[in-house]
Amino acid sequence: MTTERPTELKLVFDEPVQRKKAPKHLADFGPAERKAFAKELGFQPFRAAQVATHYFSHLSNNPDDWTDIPAAERQAIADALTPKMIELVTTRTTDGGMTRKDLWKLHDGVLVESVLMRYSDRTTVCISSQAGCGMNCPFCATGQAGLTRNLSAAEITDQIVAAARACAEGEMPGGPTRLSNIVFMGMGEPLANYNAVVRTLHNITDPNPDGLGISARSVVVSTVGLVNGIEKLMDEGINCTLAVSLHTPDDELRDSLVPINNRFKVREVLAAADAYEKKTGRRYSIEYALIRDINDQSWRSDLLGRLLKNRNAHVNLIPLNPTPGSKWTASRREDEAEFVRILEGYGVPVTVRDTRGREIDGACGQLAASEKEKI
Which residues make up the binding site for [4Fe-4S] cluster (predicted)? Predict the structure, then answer.
């Protein structure tokens, strides 16, 4: 899909002004670039491969354990190639410890969140790609906070490595496990921080020791519908799963619920998702937050069913996790059930997302907002 776009659309990928740049880290570079990075800092290039093995394969952030590196050099190499990118501020748990929300402080004091969830058949981490979000969706705590800045690839990757380490070290009930799934559904619009997210996708999917060696089939990148970003992503050859946050099938409501719809209309977004599915062979997901009396009417389910009935798409209905003081709230159970029934009548695969995390400021951006108020 190569439709020419107006010049101003490149602004979707512009980097917001940063007050202070994040320190460079091994995870900001590809394998070959890492050697040049090490050399630039005054170390032998092969040290980059050694450190990458410790970071990605062994999930080790303790240079004392790096026995293949001379003891006198370990700390200096660690400080230079793997500087601390995120610092844990607080952790909240629910579901008997099976859901854990971590609040991280970045080098400039900015706060972001990740959520680790253990299920019977998988362990998933939901990560942030931006501090805040510029998409301005009115029902989203992060969207209402606005965009602070993009995260670097290392700041995103370090959330994942920290989650993988917590799993491996048995920090969740049930003992040690393997982090199996990653979803870019935390704070931010991933495709508005395109380069850092793509570098992170390589860090996730590249085999050890160059990356974490997690299958692209287990990685989900969510977008509100940045069509030019979807088009770029399909040419990367990574073949992760695409999730489109649609939230309503009609342009009139979507213009206000998801303001980027004023640039990219519903049918254009779905056409881009279809092209992504055709190129990658990966069925895409339609994310739909059910909001009481706003987008949960049966006629909207009927319209959505008619739009999707011949597409290789799956609908993920999300009972809205309301934020304090918001006028937006979750749909009634009977309306949710009717919405599902109508979609199934069109043969559209549909599931209702497990509503984890309500007790721990589970809606994206809530925990960061509540901690900011204390500062």
Answer: 133, 137, 140
Q: Which residue has the tokens 């995390």?
A: 357
Active site residue 240: no
Where in the sequence is the domain holding 71, given as residue range(s)? 24-81
Residues 225 and 127 in one domain: yes
Nearest Cα to Cα of residue 352 among 315, 317, 322: 317
The one catalytic residue in 113, 155, 231, 287 is 113
Kindly report the CATH number assigned to the domain that includes residue 176: 3.20.20.70
Residue 57 assigned to a binding site: no
pTM tops 0.85, yes or no: yes
247 known ligand binder: yes
Q: Per the residue annotation, which of 33, 252, 364, 373 is the catalytic one?
A: 364
- Rounded Cα distance, 136 and 191, in Å: 15
- Answer yes or no: is 54 a known binding residue: no
Kindly state whether residues 96 and 149 are assigned to the same domain: yes
CA dihedral 58, 63, 64, 70 (to 10 degrees): 110
49, part of any domain: yes
In a domain, 15, yes or no: no
134 is an annotated ligand-binding site residue: no
Contact 184, 218 (CB under 8 A): no
Q: Sorting pLDDT into bands at 50, 70 and 90, what band is 2?
A: very low
Q: Is 334 part of the annotated catalytic residue set? A: no
Backbone angles phi, psi at 88, to 5 degrees: -70, 125
> Cα–Cα distance between 232 and 178 in angstroms, integer?
31
